[in-house]
Amino acid sequence: MNLNNTTVLGTGILGSQIIFQTAYHGLPVVGYDISDEALAAAAQRLDLLVQRYADFFDGGDRTKAQAARDSIRLSSDLADAVKDADLVIEAVPEALAIKQDTYERLAKVAPAHSVFATNSSTLLPSMIAPHTGRPDKFLALHYANEVWKNNTGEVMGTAQTGEEAYEAVVDFAERTGLVAIRVLKEQPGYVLNSLLVPFLQAASGLLVNGVADAPTIDKTWKIATGAPKGPFEIYDIVGLNTAYNISSMGDETNKKFAQLLKTEYIDKGKLGQATGEGFYKYN
Question: Chain centroid to CA 61: how far?
């Protein structure tokens, strides 16, 4: 099983990075989203990634990164987007109902040989597998944000995932510049977010309970541990929509934080680094 032609469903912050990472490493890739408006926003994200990749890999030379950008095709027609797909990577919003509906529609139009991989940050793939129509060819491939430098690819199957599909996704991860992390059993949050999410939730709890403001919490963590970023800087990188979706499924403190995110940030268009403002302002 050789996974070359790739389609990424969802062209948000991380979806766009997955698309660009795949193209930069020489594989054909199509980005799908639900509307031409969403694709226009995706095109802008992809254009900005050209310089990020050029600076990180090529000393500022844009030749290879621009060629990768030029190779990417975008589509708002699901059947068109997946017609040649060996691998479909799903990066739609972190809401179970949305993901389940996406896979039910995908199963009707994708080629029979296509492998499906979810990039869900917190949901177990077994919660989605019955909706895929091919549980033996379904598993999780989880990317970290700023994937070009934070290049882990966590591969996690279900009890129904076939060994051939699992190994093919490990191989795909490695061919697209990732360090493949074999997660040996289903775990909400894989390895990375099992460590990261409790850390971020501890910070949001300090904020909503009035213990300290966001800059103070970030400053404390960075000075005391030598970490390059504090939790609220990480929230801005991840995106406040994602933070909202995850927090709204938690306990009362998490839901209080979700409400804060919605009223003070998301409803005002402050979604994090991608929009130029979240907990902090960005150029």
Answer: 27
Q: How far apart are the C-alpha atoms of 191 and 197, rounded to whole Å?
A: 10
CATH fold of 6-182, please?
A: Rossmann fold (3.40.50)
238 token code pair: 């991840």
Alpha helices in the chain (DSSP H): 13-24, 36-58, 63-71, 78-82, 96-109, 163-175, 192-208, 214-225, 231-238, 240-247, 252-264
Alpha carbons 26 and 20: distance in angstroms, whole number: 10
What pLDDT is recorded for position 249?
84
Encode pLDDT of 242-283 as tens digits.
899 889 988 999 999 999 999 999 999 999 998 999 999 998
Pairing of strands 179-182, 73-75: unpaired
Q: Do 107 and 131 touch, CB atoms closer than 8 A?
A: yes
| CA dihedral angle for residue 6, residue 8, residue 9, residue 13, rounded to 10 degrees | 180
| pLDDT per residue as tens digits for the range 10-47 | 999 999 999 999 999 999 999 999 999 999 999 999 99
Q: Which residues contact 233 (CB under 8 A, 6 or more apart)?
A: 218, 279, 280
pLDDT reported for residue 196: 92
| pTM, to two decimals | 0.84
- Residue 97 contacts residue 126 (beta carbons within 8 Å): no
Residue spans of the domains in the chain: they are 6-182, 194-275
- How far, rounded to the nearest angstrom, does the alpha carbon of residue 173 sit from its chain's CA centroid? 14
Which residue's entry shows tokens 């933070």?
A: 243
Which residue stretches of the chain have pLDDT < 50?
none
- Residue 241 and residue 93: Cα distance in Å, rounded? 8
State which fold the 194-275 domain adopts: N-(1-d-carboxylethyl)-l-norvaline Dehydrogenase; domain 2 (1.10.1040)
Long-range own/partner contacts, residues 212-215 (CB < 8 A, 24 or more apart): 214/279
